[in-house]
Amino acid sequence: MVDLENLDSDRTRPGAILELGAVWFDWTGQILDRLHIPLALLPQIGSGRTVCPDTQAWWARRPDFEDVIRGDIPLDDGLHGLAEFWHEYREEDSSLHAWGASYDPVILEAAYRRELGWADAPWPYYAVRCSRSLCRHHGISREGPTAHRAVEDCERQIRALIQCPIPISECVAKR
Questions:
Q1: CA angle 16, 21, 26 (to 5 degrees)
Q2: Class of domain 2-170
Q3: How far, CA to CA in Å, does 74 sit from each of 31, 47, 81, 99, 160?
Q4: Among 10, 3, 173, 13, CA closest to 95
Q5: Torsion angle of alpha carbons 52, 112, 147, 67, nearest 10°?
Q6: What is residue 98's predicted lDDT score, i.e. its pLDDT?
Q7: I need a labelling partner for 101 at 20 to 30 A (CA). Which of 5, 65, 94, 122 fits?
Q8: What is the DSSP letter of 125?
Q9: In this predicted structure, what is the pLDDT of residue 74?
Q10: pLDDT of residue 75
Q11: How far apart are CA 41 and CA 71, in angstroms?
Q12: Which residues touch 54 (CB under 8 Å, ≥6 apart)?
């Protein structure tokens, strides 16, 4: 499961990314590993990544805003770290789950192209799965409010996803 927090919710712009989170899990819901990457904000803005004033104002009202913007890892290092995390655990049929296949993965794929010059993200395009769609199809909701902290949100999304009564074969990446 992957999640990010950013300062521009328009995925067509290269928004500044506050943090990356990824959680590797099995289909029993056991957490196998976590990755939290707090990203340095000012170098991203200096390189042209965007900030939406409304999104920035929303973050500024949060009690944890000061903690969120204290990230110190350069974006390119963070993207490399996420790629290493994927490659460390992936198997032939691994899937990349996100709470919305057209948001976090799209932003990350664009960041890999823009920041690192990669043609593709570390995961194959056919591996991306929308956990929100699976859960909604089965009438399952995430419990509690969204934390808007990448790793915590991943774990919350996993707890919802594993309740889906679907065969694992439908959740794995196949060409």
A1: 155
A2: alpha beta
A3: 26, 11, 11, 25, 32
A4: 173
A5: -70
A6: 97
A7: 65
A8: G
A9: 98
A10: 98
A11: 7
A12: none
